[in-house]
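Write out this protein's structure.
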Amino acid sequence: MSDTALQDAERVVRTIAETALENEKYFCDLDAVVGDGDFGYSLARGFGKLLEDWDTLEYSDVGGLLKKSAVILSSRIGGASGPIWGTAFLRAGMALSDKPSPSGQDVIAALRAAIEGIKQRGNSDVGDKTLLDALVPAVDTLEQQLQAGKPAAEALQAATATARESADATKTMLAQRGRAAYSGERSQNSVDAGAMAIAVMFERITQAWSPTSV
């Protein structure tokens, strides 16, 4: 197994967790416009527990890290977000179970597996004004960049720009899932909290990224 691959995966997961904690109020404020206003709290609770238990997690590869994270997130993130984020991490971990040194395409396959898990668990798809509206376009861009032979850091930067643009674009969309769906046309005047969380997480990962793998 590549120690660098595992170190990069640890950096990514920790960055996601730290971003959830640092943006708890911001994500809650976004969610409060048309939702329960607890999205940021729920994420912070789950990812905070992950960081709290970090030194006691037992895993030997990237897939194991993601699956261990999934267990904690599923049990600690409240509401509808817990199953969705837990499933995403679990599906990604399963996709990398036999990949001790994941390639760029292995990472894309894991992200696609996470996306399919989110779709199934949340009964949602692109266009429903959810985190998928930022995540799917970002992964599409990442895959296109890697297939074009771009360096990992450059590909990630492009994907991050797509995530931000796509999250901003949810402002004009009509929510189809969750409590926001009950607000009708009022949901068109605000960005989706989940989509924006994806954008912010991509931005933080890009800042922390070490282009030594993928």
